[in-house]
Amino acid sequence: MSPRRPAWPGHAGAIPLVSPLQPSVVYRSADPDALDAQYASGAGYTYAREGHPNADVLAGLIDGMEGADGGFVTGSGMAAISAMFLGLLRAGDHVVGADQLYGRTLRMMNAELPRLGIDTTLADVTDAAAIRAAIRPETKLVVVEVVSNPTIRIADMEGIVAATREAGVLLAVDNTFTTPALYRPLAEGADIVIHSVTKLLSGHSDTTLGYVAARDPALTRAMWEANETWGLTPSPFDCWLAERGMMSFELRLARAEANAEALAEALTGMPGVRRVLWPGRADHPDHNRAMAVLGGRGGNMLSFEVEGGREAANALVRGAEGIAFAPTLGDVSTTLSHPASSSHRAVPAEARARVGISEGFFRVSVGIEPPEDLIAAFRRGVEAASAAAARGGAG
Ligand SMILES: *Cc1c(COP(=O)(O)O)cnc(C)c1O
């Protein structure tokens, strides 16, 4: 699933194996006729906000993995989502979204789109009937993630594809958590695929990038126009770094996934751990659906809950020495996040409790470390949390 190195034009007969980094913002044209022809055809480069070689090469690699044609790279995952909304919607339209989308996407649904006169409804994506019920005559678009963050629930993708087709509305899938190795939205019947390339595809937490592609070239064109006009363009250097990272994508994911399975198994047996959520395990609430939707794979994301309140959570993070407490995912190293103090801070406690996000709830983006080091670090963390919970009384 990792892409092959792209071919670049040669220089004086020698073809570089590694893509050159092309930072030029502007490109010269031969004469006004040539420039005119270039604008008319859309081919070639004139000004970097409107496209540059490093972005195009990266987009081509992701297109290949997603089975897409003509997708483009944006300055962040949120820029990709913005390009979609700004390119495809107008005041009076309605959008349905999953009720557990990425935090900033939820903010887009709850605050930004309504501010622009676009109404939104959030619904439970584990239940296609709830999505169907949320669709109205003026609904233009349904936006979902396959694996919910941070609760690791699996969307009923087959039911949602059917519901959106029947209603004649567009389905956009944010494929960041799943990656094309676990799910390929366009092949499964979705209309639009989105990535935060920042995460698993790039893989090293040193670039901020996004990607979006639609099955219908007219939709891709509309999103691309918004991207250029609203200035959501990526930096050549970020694209160049991401291309390098993507060469090892499949190896990184396979190792991280094997580590996630081993860590889930180890956590399940640790005293003080209430529950572990990894889709590849038979005890996951959506295991059967996960196996069908994710092609038998479990991915690198898991969540778990320990007994105790904030004190136990603090103790866990301090005790799991060597595991970075950082609100991201998809890095080569394992990162730990605590939704109650970060992504879900603003969510009222009882709404959080309804979806199972307690003070003891953690999300783990599993990396590629030696598994025994990883398990040992989490064991120290869980033991520290249990000791804190015992001191403070169960929270
Ligand atoms: C991180 C993330 C985003 C936003 O991407 P940025 O590159 O941070 O802008 C969107 N969706 C999901 C699922 C993400 O994990």
UniProtKB/TrEMBL annotation:
Biological-process GO terms, alphabetical: transsulfuration
Keyword list, A-Z: Pyridoxal phosphate
GO annotation, cellular component aspect: cytoplasm
A Pfam family the protein falls into: Cys_Met_Meta_PP
InterPro entries: Cys/Met-Metab_PyrdxlP-dep_enz (IPR000277), PyrdxlP-dep_Trfase (IPR015424), PyrdxlP-dep_Trfase_major (IPR015421), PyrdxlP-dep_Trfase_small (IPR015422)
An annotated Gene Ontology molecular function: pyridoxal phosphate binding
Domain of life: Bacteria
UniProt keyword Flavoprotein, yes or no: no
Modified sites of kind N6-(pyridoxal phosphate)lysine: 199
Required co-factors: pyridoxal 5'-phosphate
Family listed: Belongs to the trans-sulfuration enzymes family.
The protein's name: Cystathionine gamma-synthase
